[in-house]
Every structure is written in structure tokens, then in C-alpha cells.
Specification:
113 residues, alpha+beta, 4-stranded antiparallel sheet, 4 helices, binds zinc ion
């Protein structure tokens, strides 16, 4: 079964979940108990090796759609409750991963830098 990254926006809990394509993309968060634990899309290396963006335009388009996702997440978080510094740090880490180029992601996943 494929594994997916899930993140809870209000409490910044993050985990990898095994599920099939037909399972819901929104689950109850095991930490805060809200229905805010949702599937996020950080491509694993075996996917972006095949679907490499070839032009600057494609790359910026991809960055832009990632940005849209996070702006939306931040808005949802703001509507619920303030997050503490530790959670902000976690979110910053996520944004860093999302803003990476595919090459940087591969490096980060393999070497942790
Ligand atoms: Zn939560």
C-alpha cells in the first residue's frame, strides 16, 4: 500500500500514513482530535525523477501551486487557534521542504541537509 504524508494544520502534527487511494484525505488528528489531519503532497524521489520539470516556467508554476497550498493552510490555522513557537518552527521546516527544488529535496531526504 502506498504511504502518504499527513499534517494537522492547527497543531502541526506530522506523520506518514499507509492507505489506499480510495481512503479519505482528511482524518481525525491523533494529537488534537480534530478532523484536520490531512494528506499533503511532498513527492518522494521516485516520483520526481520521472516527472522532472524541464523549464523555469514549469518550476515556478510548481512553486506557485505549493505556495497556494500553504497560504490556504495558514489561513485555516489562523481561524482556529494561535500556534506556539515550536509548532511555528515545524511549519517553517515544512515550508522549507516544499520550496526546495527536486534536486534539493533528494539531497535533503538522503542526507538530511
Ligand atoms: Zn492536530
Amino acid at each position: 500500500m502506498p504511504r502518504y504524508d499527513f499534517e494537522c494544520t492547527p497543531c502541526a502534527y506530522y506523520s506518514e500514513i499507509k492507505q489506499s487511494m480510495s481512503d479519505p484525505a482528511l482524518l481525525e488528528c491523533p494529537v488534537c482530535g480534530q478532523m484536520t489531519f490531512q494528506k499533503i503532497f511532498i513527492s518522494p524521489p521516485n516520483i520526481f525523477v520521472r516527472g522532472e520539470a524541464k523549464t523555469i516556467g514549469q518550476l515556478s508554476e510548481r512553486n506557485f501551486s505549493d505556495m497556494g497550498h500553504y497560504e490556504k493552510s495558514d489561513k485555516i490555522a489562523k481561524d482556529r487557534k494561535p500556534i506556539n513557537d515550536k509548532q511555528k518552527e515545524k511549519r517553517k521546516q515544512h515550508q522549507k521542504i516544499v520550496s526546495m527544488t527536486p534536486e534539493q529535496k533528494v539531497k535533503w531526504i538522503k542526507k538530511g541537509e
